[in-house]
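Protein in question kept underneath.
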Amino acid sequence: MKKLLISLALVASPLLAQAQVGVSVNIGEPGFYGQINLGNAAPPPVVYSQPVIVQAPPPGPEMAPLYLRVPPDHHKNWARYCHEYNACGRKVFFVSDDWYRNTYAPQYKREHGHDHDYDHREEHHDDHEHHDEHEHHEDH
């Protein structure tokens, strides 16, 4: 019986590892990855001083750069991940994670009536959740 349970556990573990759970993470929360709408605010601290762009922009008037919060492995391999943010043909600045956690998120929560404090514990970057500008379009 013990061998049967071990065998079942070994068979089931890869299946469980592949299961995906849908989680909604909003702007201002620790696990949010996506576009940061600055409104009229000054540009925030960024990871790279120059914007990153991985393919030619579409024809037409030049679009303003995007400010995105992404996990470190995404900005380090931007050509691999830019499509997940609909940003391959756009100039992109990656906002500093410290700025997002310590300045933007608390201010966003105050302005939008979130009544719980921002949790500053270390985030887990293995479970990425990001949203593009079409999923969470909010005016700031």
